Amino acid sequence: QVQLVESGGGLVQAGGSLRLSCAASGSIFSINGMGWYRQAPGKQRELVAFISSSGRANYAESVKGRFTISRDNAKNTVSLQMSLQMDSLKSEDTAVYYCKANQGIREYWGQGTQVAVSS
User: Fold this and answer.
1) pLDDT tens across 71-115, in order?
2) What's the Cα-to-Cα distance from 100 to each of 15, 30, 83, rounded to whole Å?
């Protein structure tokens, strides 16, 4: 089992920045890809950014050039950290942001953290 806990959400003005963090614990030794997803009110959950175990990152078109995903690849068998640096935030970035970890065919999700961007 893997436990994921997000932090760093909040209220920010348009044009501002936030940094989200995801702390993974438990059986993290075989986690491969990790990603950030978001869900705005009345909309489906969507992929924001994804990072492989080797550090290769992919981004949704809507956040390219503004968001940066990173992960701690240190050989730590106790915990694993992943972050999402969000710059030049827009009102349309308002959503609940979720952390996800893939482990083989299993998926684990965090509880989500709210990001609100005021225009």
Assistant:
1) 986 666 678 899 999 999 999 999 999 999 999 999 999 999 999
2) 26, 14, 12
Mode of pairing for the β-strands spanning 113-118 and 10-13: parallel
Q: Which two tokens stand for residue 59?
A: 């981004």
Q: Is the pLDDT of residue 119 over 80?
A: yes
Closest by alpha carbon to 47, among 109, 5, 119?
A: 109
Cβ contacts of residue 44 below 8 Å, gap of 6+? none
Query: Residue 54, exposed/middle/buried by CB under 10 A (0-12, 13-18, 19+)?
Result: exposed
| Residues 20-27, mean pLDDT to the nearest whole number | 93
Using one digit for the tens of pLDDT, what is the confidence trace for 47-79?
999 999 889 999 999 999 999 999 986 666 678
* Half-sphere CA count of 38, side-chain side, radius 13 A: 21
Q: By CB neighbour count within 10 A (0-12 exposed, 13-18 middle, 19+ buried), where does 49 fall? A: buried
